[in-house]
Predict the 3D structure of the following.
Amino acid sequence: MPKYKLICFDVDGTLIEGVEFSWSYLHDCFGVDKNRREKARDDFFNQKITYLEWALHDIGMWMEKGITKKDFLKAISVFSLMPGARETLLALKKQGYKLAVISGSLDIILETMIPDYQDIFDEVFISKLIFGKDGKIKEVIATQYDMKMKAEALKLVAEKYGYSLKECVFVGDHYNDIEIMKHVGLGIAFNCKSDELRSVADIVVNKKDLREVLTLVNA
Ligand SMILES: [Mg+2]
């Protein structure tokens, strides 16, 4: 019997290389008002607003500026898929693991890097942007499951498939992954930029190659 059944991945900095946090990178690219952006960020970290409210606020600033799908694609063209990502995902899927994305990133990023991501992942928690014919954002389906709430998404998926949290694996790189990392049976800090994440993880992978995860999950 395999030890683990569900493998969950973060996106920015984990499946995708070339970015720590896509939102702040995009704000920089789009020249979003720094004061308003920082106020919303502070409000979130001071628990004045929820993650979802923060996300909607920031997407609202992109909508005000009339940012188009083309602008997003141009901005994210500097990102790349993490080495070994595709091979690892396809191998895990073939081996029968359930796969999930639990991320505060944007679907346009995942879709650009892994066009068939909806076939690969059984569950996807991510913020979705729907663009109109004019290329502008028409609709927003923002996720509430980032930061501490990532752990809640994990619990939802585990419960749906009847797995214990010990049978779940999470792979992530940053401080927004700390809480979820504490709950899984195997927490893998990958391409890690947070000392606290490193300290709560079961294993730290320093080599920037997701095939390391494939080995660890099957060890
Ligand atoms: Mg990340």
